[in-house]
Specification:
Layout: H1 8-15, H2 25-45, E1 55-59, E2 65-67, H3 68-82, E3 87-92, E4 99-100, E5 112-120, E6 131-139, H4 150-153, E7 162-168, E8 172-177, E9 182-188, E10 193-198, E11 209-211, H5 222-232, E12 241-242, H6 248-258, E13 260-264, H7 277-290, E14 293-296, E15 316-320, H8 321-333
Parallel strand pairs: 3-5, 11-12, 11-13
Antiparallel strand pairs: 1-2, 3-4, 5-6, 6-7, 7-8, 8-9, 9-10, 13-15, 14-15
Helix pairs in contact: 1-2, 2-3, 5-8
Bound molecules: 2,5-anhydro-1,6-di-O-phosphono-D-mannitol (AHM) and magnesium ion (MG).
Length: about 325
């Protein structure tokens, strides 16, 4: 039973001992994410009021228009993470290359690298639909005392020490794991404090929601087409219901609470789908597994994939265990 008054700050301190490296540094890192989340939340909430929405004019590495809030969120997270002597490198979906932090860490003593998608689903901002921030934390693999290298960022997802997201929705929540289950905290905007509202979050094993951009249907692999038809078929507890926000964090969050599966398959338009392994799929997969769910590229466990480049994309199927396994069954059968 949740202690209704437990704040995120208290929770971090109380659970520090359970973390295997338990030096307090990871706690401090999560605290800096908490701080950046509040700052970004404040700005996201103002989006309808001020002339901040719309393209900033830049085009990011994926060739998409960047919006001003993406840039703002990117800057805030990088700034906040750089300010404490914990992080040695950051990779962001909005940056072409990773950032080596050496201004404050001249002797390269910091241990952690952070990968972020500062504002995922940002095309939804203009229409007042929920967006999110996704983060993923690893210990560096190169020796302390040397600058970070690409190797520190291209680690398999199963090496993550923490991951989470912030959803800027009807209420703002921070949901994260350090490998001991998933806990969700809701922001009380009046006083700027996150409270533990969703302890030990779990995906129901089965669900009735499938979340996929069906506009891409004709381009999907046969296995995915067959799965969608299966969901729509009137038989047993089917047809299922379709819910797609187009904002991964929000679709994932809803499916974790209600039971469902999110799919961004490969298609004849995008041979690896759209989502990025390092900034989106790995952190969500870690959370999913910690919440008794599953994440796969249709055949392989996401967390076991060896990344080869920073901005690599993979097909993504994630959510309630039995539903993800059903998708995998359809993929195998269509081979
Ligand atoms: P982004 O990182 O450019 O915002 O793209 C990721 C988003 C996900 O949040 C969402 O699930 C997906 O793109 C929606 O894509 P589509 O419009 O192709 O369905
Ligand atoms: Mg994104």
């Amino acid at each position: 039973m949740a202690n209704k008054k437990q704040t995120l700050g208290e929770f971090i301190i109380e659970n520090q001992a359970a973390f295997k490296y338990s030096s307090g540094e990871l706690s401090s890192l999560i605290n800096s994410i908490r701080l950046a989340a509040k700052v970004v939340n404040h700005e996201v909430n103002k989006a309808g009021l001020v002339d901040i929405i719309g393209a900033a004019g830049d085009v990011n590495i994926q060739g998409e228009d960047q919006q001003k809030l993406d840039v703002y969120a990117n800057e805030k997270f990088i700034q906040t993470l750089t300010n404490r002597n914990i992080v040695c490198g950051i990779a962001s979906e909005e940056e072409d290359d990773f950032i080596s932090i050496n201004s404050q860490d001249e002797n390269h003593q910091n241990k952690y690298v952070v990968l972020i998608d500062p504002l995922d689903g940002s095309s939804n901002i203009d229409v007042n639909v929920s967006v999110g921030t996704i983060f993923s934390i690893y210990r560096r693999v190169t020796p302390i005392g040397t600058p970070v290298t690409i190797e520190d960022f291209l680690q398999r997802g199963n090496q993550q020490v923490a991951a989470g997201y912030v959803v800027y929705g009807t209420s703002t929540m921070l949901v994260y794991t350090t490998g001991h289950g998933v806990n969700g905290f809701t922001l009380n905007p009046a006083i700027g404090t996150f409270y533990l509202s969703h302890p030990n979050m779990q995906f129901p094993e089965n669900g009735h929601i499938y979340s996929v951009n069906e506009g891409n249907y004709i381009h999907f692999p046969q296995g995915i087409k067959n799965y969608i038809k299966y969901c729509q078929k009137e038989e047993g507890d089917r047809p299922y219901t379709s819910r797609y926000i187009g904002s991964l964090v929000s679709d994932f969050h809803r499916n974790m609470i209600k039971g469902g599966v999110y799919l961004y398959p490969k298609s004849s338009l995008n041979s690896n789908g759209k989502l990025r392994l390092l900034y989106e799929c790995n952190p969500m997969a870690f959370l999913a597994e910690q919440a008794n769910g599953k994440a796969s590229d249709g055949f392989t466990r996401i967390l076991d994939i060896q990344p080869t480049e920073l901005h690599e994309r993979v097909p993504f199927v994630c959510g309630s265990k039995n539903m993800v396994e059903k998708v995998e069954e359809f993929m195998r059968d269509a081979q």
